[in-house]
Amino acid sequence: MKPDTTLIHSVWDNSSHFITKTDNEKNDIDIDYLLASIFSNGPFYFYVVDFFNREIKYISPGVEEIHGLRPEKTTFQDILDCIHPDDMAFVAKAEETMMKVFYETLGVEKYKKYKMSYCFRFRTKDGSYQMFNHQAILLATDEHGRGAKSLNIHTNISHLTSKNNYQISAIGMFGEPSYLNIDTKDHTLFPNPSQPIFTKREIEIIRLLSLGLTNINIADKLYISFETVRTHRKNILRKSKSKNSGELISKCITNGLI
After folding, report:
1. Residue 222: which residues within 8 A CB-CB, separation 6 or more?
2. Mean pLDDT of 237-253
3. Is the pTM of this model over 0.85?
4. Which of 10, 145, 226, 248 is the most buried (most CB within 10 A)?
5. Domains of the chain, start order
6. Is the distance from CB of 117 to CB of 256 less than 8 angstroms?
7. What is the CA radius of gyration of the chain?
8. What are phi and psi of 248, to 5 degrees?
């Protein structure tokens, strides 16, 4: 059963203050650079969508393995149709909240300095619905500062968690503070800004932990001592208030900690 996507289209249709109404061919940010900063523990694919006409400008081959959709024929609507029908209302509300956060709180000049993150269930190639993390970064704006093109990354995280906190996070890039766990029901309850919770080294260790590496493997990979890895892991668990690595990775993704 396909979801009713009219709700999410209406959100975009009624957001002329945020989404461009003119064609824009310029990409202001290097996509390869952005992909290097994306946390993608699990099968993923990415695509660039042009919000002027809601057409996909490029989509990676991974969409076929994940959704069973041929890249050369996949449309934006095809991707939306894979969203779980029961999650469509949340996805639409998440998009609406994201635009209000930018327009009313962060300011349009900050559009391209943030990565938006939230989770929902997607239909996969075998017909089952699994939990995915959605990350979106604005690539280009028009002459009025409105969003023109977006880089979207969808990562299957069902091996890490099946729970959704039904919140969104605005992850600061280029030195900007982050805003975690924004309530989509009442975006006026805006959280206080937070500086990055983890150091660059700690994020490296979290990424390796999420791949199943042991302390010894991580030490060898990063050319540091076993005891140093142990110390980092203790600090990471303390900072994230997690009891174990599984809870840590789940929190990092669903709460947008990395």
Report:
1. 201, 204, 205, 208, 229
2. 83
3. no
4. 248
5. 31-183 (3.30.450.20), 200-255 (1.10.10.10)
6. yes
7. 18
8. -60, -50
